[in-house]
Amino acid sequence: MANRRLPRPRELRELLRPAPFELDGTARRLNRAVTIADLRTLARRRVPRAVFDYADGSAGEGELSLRRARKAFRRVEFHPSVLRDVSNVRTDTMILGKPSALPFALAPTGFTRMMHHEGERAVVAVAERVGIPYALSTLGTVTIEQMAAAGPGARRWFQLYLWRDRGPAVDLVTRAAEAGYDTLLLTVDTPVAGARLRDIRNGLTIPPRLTLRTFVDGALHPRWWFNLLTTEPLRFANFTSTQGTVAELIDRVFDPGLTMADVAWLRSIWPGSLVIKGVQSVADAQRVVDAGVDAVLLSNHGGRQLERAPVPLELLPDVVAAVGERAEILLDTGIMNGADIVAALALGANTVLVGRAYLYGLMAGGQRGVARAVEILAGEVTRTMQLLGVTSVEELRPAHVTFRR
Question: What is the pTM of this model?
Answer without folding.
Answer: 0.93
